[in-house]
Amino acid sequence: MIGRRHRRDDTTGREIAAPTEIPVVAVVSPKGGNGKTTVSSNLAVGLAHRTDSVIIDLDIHFGDVEYALRMRPAHRLDDLVEAGNRRDPMTMLSTHPSGLEVLCAPNDPVAADRLSVDDAFAVVDRIVAAGRPVVLDTAGGISDYSLGALDRATRVVMVCGTDVPSVQAGRKLLDTMRRLDMDLDRVDLLVNRADAHVGLSVDDVETALDRHAVITIPEHSSLAAGMNSGSPVTESSPRSPIAVAFRHYADVLLGIDMAAAVTGRR
Ligand SMILES: Nc1ncnc2c1ncn2[C@@H]1O[C@H](COP(=O)(O)OP(=O)(O)OP(=O)(O)O)[C@@H](O)[C@H]1O
Ligand SMILES: [Mg+2]
Q1: On the CB side of 84, how many CA atoms lie within 13 Å of its CA?
Q2: What are the angstrom distances between the C-alpha of 84 and each of 55, 74, 110, 126?
Q3: What is the pLDDT of residues 149-188, one digit of tens each?
Q4: Which residues constitute the domain of residue 153?
Q5: DSSP string, 131-187
Q6: How far is Cα 52 from Cα 99, in angstroms, rounded to an integer?
Q7: Minimal CA–CA distance to 5: which of 15, 20, 22?
Q8: Of 10, 17, 90, 123, which is least packed with CB atoms within 10 Å of its CB?
Q9: What is the pLDDT of residue 15?
């Protein structure tokens, strides 16, 4: 868990953790379609309900944060790269109704391909430097963008399904991170479609990846419907168990509620 210093909530007498680190959260999964954007968008809205937060779509060729959040961005990542130092990137983000600031991926995959990774991350770094929680959605696979996101992340959310290919790919990703001397203690396992009953249990996934799941998300039509309507469940059904799970995890990331750290775990 992120570093915290503790104080006492006078109203409940409960230990409250104050964050000592602003979370930069990379949401990764080596396989496509595992639920990265679903998780990113719900988590980012959960964070935005607490504090000013940003989501950046680093799935630069086929990013769909804009669909998940029903955004019509005036500016995208390539526009911010183009603007360079002439403009403050924070003034070029698009605002979601939740207050979340959104930076969408380029609209044109060819334009995305022409982007220099260094220039793109110069923009990301300036946004991170603004000191707000940032969620980085990524594409499947290991690319310069996903590695750049992993390099910058204070927390890594590894999204894994309960199917063998997903778990095996997860093992390879962890192994790659280990070989790149990345700190694996930062990696939080999120098991998506945890109740899919396709052969592996959450325990099996945890054993195979040698870590506990900090959050498990069931297969639920509200998540798919939320993606299609551009309204994450954290926004459309904030009291639903799935929204509560995302909010609890957002609180853990922010160091707001020690009790959430316990209930958010299995
Ligand atoms: N727990 C779930 N229950 C039901 N539907 C889900 C769940 N998780 C994800 N989905 C649906 O699965 C599809 C893929 O999810 P999503 O786009 O979040 O995956 P992704 O990892 O971002 O994919 P890509 O690698 O293509 O970017 C979407 O239609 C989404 O709504
Ligand atoms: Mg995606």
Answers
A1: 4
A2: 19, 16, 20, 10
A3: 999 999 999 999 999 999 999 999 999 999 999 999 999 9
A4: 4-263
A5: TS-EEEE--SS--HHHHHHHHH-SEEEEEE-SSHHHHHHHHHHHHHHHHTT--GGGE
A6: 7
A7: 20
A8: 10
A9: 40
Residue 196 — pLDDT band, cuts 50, 70, 90?
confident
Beta strand spans in the chain (E):
4-8, 15-19, 24-28, 54-57, 94-95, 101-103, 134-137, 155-160, 187-192, 213-217
Which two tokens mark 74?
A: 């005036």
> How many domains does the chain fold into?
1
Q: Does ligand 1 have an atom closer than 6 angstroms to the CB of 27?
A: no
pTM: 0.90
CB 106 within 8 A of CB 115: yes
Domain CATH number, residue 157: 3.40.50.300
Contact between 38 and 65 under an 8 Å Cβ cutoff? The reply is no
Distance 59 CA to ligand 2 centre (A): 7
Residue nearest to atom 14 of ligand 1 (CA): 33
Closest CA to 12 of 181, 258, 223, 249: 258
Between strands 187-192 and 155-160, the pairing is parallel
CA 160 to centroid of chain Cα atoms: 13
Q: How far apart are CA 52 and CA 14, in angstroms?
A: 25
The verdict on the CB of residue 142 being under 6 Å from ligand 1 is no
Q: How many residues are given for the chain?
A: 266
Give the whole-angstrom CA distance, residue 67 versus residue 173. Answer: 27
Query: Measuring CA to CA, which residue among 27, 156, 48 is closest to residue 102?
Result: 48
Question: Which tokens is 203 given?
Answer: 């325990």
Residue of the CA atom closest to atom 2 of ligand 1: 219
